[in-house]
Design brief:
This protein is α/β, with parallel strands linked by helices and about 280 residues long. It has a single domain, classed as UDP-N-acetylmuramoyl-L-alanine:D-glutamate ligase (3-Layer(aba) Sandwich). Helix content is about 35%, strand content about 25%. This is Fructoselysine 6-kinase.
Length: about 280
Amino acid sequence: MRVIGVGDNVVDKYVHKQTMYPGGNALNFSVYAKQLGNEAAYLGVFGNDKAASHIIKTLKSLEIDITHCRQHSGENGYAAVDLVDGDRVFIGGNEGGVQKEHPIILTKDDLEYIQTFEIAHSSIYSDMDSELHKIKETKTLLSYDFSSDYTDEKLRDVCKHVDISLLSCGQLSDEEAINLVKQVHSYGSSLVIGTMGSRGAMVYDGDQLYRQEPHFVKPVDTLGAGDSFFTAFILHYIEGKKNKIYESHGELLRESLRKGAEIAAKTCLVDGAFGYGISF
């Protein structure tokens, strides 16, 4: 399968050990997809500092196509992170760095390129919501991660362009999370996934709600668990639907959730989102 992450990249700076790791929601999607055996690309904005150089070097070593990326003078996006009992806590950052000053404007060439992929994935941190309709018009499947920073206005504006929406719902009760994913579906997304940390995840397809318990491990670092969960889920779902592997849509969704939980647990055993740390 050919997949592309379009949007944010950062380095996650672990202040307690002065080590930074490549990351960012859209970039993580590309990396996890590649690790799962798919052909992956990334389209985003880099700075020209040490952080940017490390991300570019890492992506090239992983053989992820970055030929459509932009690079500008300035500081690459970063997030400052601390760890508390293996759980990541964000304590600051530069709000995307050069990406904020030079947001992605998709060209005709970009869109023709994106059209060659089965799915494109972006996020609320990618500063490109005004461009999503262009991706939608290519007919490439579009997924989007709202994290926990959504508002009802944002959901209404974005979901009409997005096929699969992902939301972090750990701060909500089960009832609130269920109501939210159903509401998001009504705004236009055909599949809506809610992740709830140690309470697992759910997916709603407009007909039925499916739940998945987490695969418990003693975490080294939970950073990237949600991103890897979603990547494994959606790629398994697309493959299963395309090849008609399962007898019913419900069985496909349940197996995709299980696959997501399995990969998320493995991610929790790795420092950073997917390793490749260097000192800063």
